[in-house]
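Re: the 68-residue chain
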Amino acid sequence: MTVSRRPGESFKSLLKRFRKEVAKARILSIARKKRWFVSKGELRRKQKKKGIRRAKRRLERSERRQQG
C-alpha cells in the first residue's frame, strides 16, 4: 500500500490517509486470518457456528421488536 504526499501536507494527515487506505483494503484482517493455517473442515465448522449465532441474534432481535 502506498500513499503519495500532497504538497504542503503534514506527516500526521499523510499517516491518517495511509491508515484509512489500509483499513479500506482490509490488509490487516487478511494478514490476521492467514497467520495460522486453518483446514477446510475447521473453516466450515467455524462458518456454521457463526451462521448459527447470527441466526439466533436475528431471531432475538425480531422477538424484541414484536414485543416492544
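Residues 38-68 form one domain.
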